[in-house]
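Why do we care about 3D structure at all? Because function follows from shape, and shape follows, mostly, from sequence. That is the central idea of this module. The next example makes it concrete: a single protein chain, its amino acid sequence, and then its structure expressed as tokens.
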Amino acid sequence: MPLGNVIDRLDIFLRSKTSEGPSVITRRTIVLGSVVVVVFVGCLTLIMYFLQLQVLVIYGLFLLILYSANALVFGLMKRNMEWFGIMAQALLILSSFICILFLGGIATSIGIVFVGLAAVVFSVVFQKVRITLSLAVLYSMTIIAAGILQPFLQIPDELTPQINHLFFTVNAVWISGYIFLFVVNYIRARIREEEAEMARLKELDETRTRLFTYISHECRTPLTIILGTAEQLKNRPDRQDSEKHEMIIRNGRQVLKQINQMLDLSRIEAGSMPVHLVQGNIVDFMRVMIESFQSLALPKGINLTFSADTDRMIMDFDRDKLGAIISNLISNAVKFTSPGGDIAVQSFTQQDRSGEEFFIKVKDNGAGIPEENIPYVFDSYYQAGTDHDADQAGTGLGLTITRELVYLLGGKIQVESKVGEGSRFTVRLPVTKYASKINTEDFIFKEGDGSETKSFQSPGTFPDTWMDTEKRFPLLLLVEDNRDMISYVSSILESEYSIIVASDGQDGLDRATETIPDIIITDLMMPVMDGYALVKQLKSDFRTSHIPIIILTAKADLPSKLAGLDLGADAYLSKPFAEEELKMRVQKLINLRKSLQERYSMPGYEMLAKLKSGNNEDSFMRKVFDTIGANLHNESFGIAEICLSVGMSRAQLYRKFQALADKSVYDCIRTMRLQNAKKLLEETESNVSDAAFASGFRNLSHFSKLFTETYGINPRACKK
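And the structure:
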């Protein structure tokens, strides 16, 4: 089915939510109009009672009953109101006709004629031309009939010309006022309806935007892997690589799964998804289903368990739909449960007034859902929070389809959650036993039966390195939660870089601060900590602020790109990307660091004069050089004291200083000691021994050798 049809069905679905009976605005108009009629007619009926016009009193009481019922029905009921409103207007026209006959014809009851006309005008609120035309025809027929019967009618004695004139004037005034109020209120109602329609169209537009954003993000990663891996195989046709073929097939299934989910949702909304019930042991079915998800939970160290109050529960169920419900709930729980966590699936039956129900509970101890977001977790394409934490919020169709499938099976679903403690989804299905029976062996899933458990992606456990670090390639940290993407990017860069891998943003932050890599490539949409938060923390930490960062993501929109660059990312590549572009970006950023090294590679005291405040790297280097300068006289001073001063481990200090200055901290200490000794020899009366000892040297022969190698002259020559 073309994508346009999916969007059109989405549009129809949204429209159908407000198409049942008169709108809320129309009901308010009818209720308001009915109340106005009751007030005016009540006053007029009281006047007619004192004037002893029995016909008009009876007519007034009838109108009071009719419009009071009208106000109650439209104020309280929500269904089948339209026909009641039409009947009320028709009765008003007919009762007015009868009243005209008893009053002696049109000439003596022109006010009643206006009442019938008001009924025709009021029918406009139903917004149906046929209804208004039908009532207009009925009204015209009564007027014509009254005109024909005029010669045979007799005017009541109590209806004197003065009373008739008064009656006509009062009726003309209140009916004119009523019509005026009706027109004003109707115009206001139409304006509100137009505003509501504009809001609905805006919501529909936003829904479509989320739809395209969702499709783009969910399909970009697998398409990147498919296209990139296919290109690699094309360039090496004689090399058989079964793992890459499997990667292409796996990610192709992932794209197909996303498309099938959209089509399934459109079929459910259109009411065209059939239910195929079979009768069997639902507990056995669930046990087999959950067992198939162990391969998804084990790589993350998650303990997935299943318990039931009985081993045998025979009932009707739809295997495909129940399988999809369980699959979506468990895969969602695995996604948001940290490594080493627990997921418990329970089933039990319970009897209530409506009959026996089968319960399925999926409980995890993962991240949990904020309380304000719980009402929206089943909404299509809903994103809780900002884009920066969109992945944590859970976007997509899985839970939406789960809810619709549960409803399709006549059940209910609810969610309970608390941030930091996890979530619990509860599904309640009615127990029936009408369908044909099946064997337990039918529960064994075969590839392509709709369970789709093989297509789920898991970060798994990643190796610490992908290259032999003894080759001393630049160290690259790859932060990515998709195993196939890790494999693909690594295959591009492994020949020139030593690669370490992190499976989420928090893991990436820990590895970055521990190893101080030469460059970082990160995704945006990751669990625990997303790419935005990772970039922000890395760039604000003086230990890692110098590291170039490339964001490699499926979020290709301009706001996302600007947000990433604003936080300090050095490059932003959207998927799918060209291999050569990625390699060139990495190489260029590595080369750019060399210009930074030239700035910090000058001799210590010369560089100190050029350092500026407010720059993380300058502040770091100044702190290192200030610490060295304050301890030059101390022979035992070394790297351990500098680590304590800057708050870094020996490995972190070594990696950061080497990256900035392209030399070791030990070389820097030695250079500053020699600079200090040379300055003392040239500018003071200090002899060689005093200058050497004041600069931290205790071995004079070693000092003389280093001095001569560095400056090309013997230290004694400086005194001459």
